[in-house]
Design a protein that fits this description.
2 helices, Jelly Rolls, 46% strand, mainly beta, 202 residues
Length: 202
């Protein structure tokens, strides 16, 4: 009977680590993830604010992979709040290549997805929450390349998720209107963390 209890405790511990994602795995030494992009959390002098993600507007932020080696994506993390106090509307996140790497004329999301996630803003009202999305495909992130994390939703304005600004720092950000991306420019960063697994050099 004691052996059964010990086995159950081990199983519960493993389930807890898996549910917590790569950060917990890193703490146990089973996975050496590295934050390759990490903006400051939300807030700042103007309080909590951000970009609405709704049917008329997508939102995207660019990150650059360190130049010293390739990585495999482990997870992304974003701070969200919700314009609705009663509904958690569906949210689609994706990792995309940069249009310049696909023959485009300007830096912006290319439309070529390496992975996507279906989610909701896991909060009601203006109560910020950081949501992590683990990578199932672990796409390769090439050294020195730019990639985009894109958020889209079909929610109407007023019932939509809000991707929060970081409390400090700058990044390259863009929004879409009518399905077309505006020219990307460096400005106030929105919250984004990208954890990845470094790959050994060839």
């Amino acid at each position: 009977m004691q052996a059964m209890h010990r086995l159950a405790a081990v199983v519960l511990a493993l389930v807890a680590v898996a549910a917590a994602g790569p950060a917990a795995a890193q703490a146990t030494g089973t996975m050496a993830t590295t934050p390759i992009f990490d903006t400051a959390g939300p807030g700042g002098p103007f309080g909590f604010n951000g970009f609405d993600v709704f049917r008329d507007q997508g939102v995207a932020e660019r990150f650059t992979v360190p130049a010293d080696g390739d990585f495999r994506l482990a997870r992304i993390g974003i701070w969200f709040m919700n314009n609705s106090d009663t509904q958690m509307r569906k949210l689609r996140l994706s990792l995309q290549t940069d249009a310049l790497d696909e023959g485009g004329a300007a830096t912006m999301p290319s439309g070529r997805e390496l992975e996507h996630w279906m989610s909701t803003a896991q909060t009601l009202g203006w109560q910020p929450v950081q949501q992590f999305h683990d990578s199932a495909k672990a796409p390769r992130l090439r050294a020195g390349r730019n990639y985009w994390v894109v958020a889209q939703a079909r929610a109407p304005g007023g019932l939509d998720p809000v991707w929060l600004f970081a409390k400090k720092g700058t990044a390259v950000v863009t929004t879409s209107a009518g399905g077309l991306w505006w020219p990307a420019a460096e400005g106030g960063a929105i919250t984004l963390r990208v954890d990845a697994l470094p790959l050994k050099p060839h």
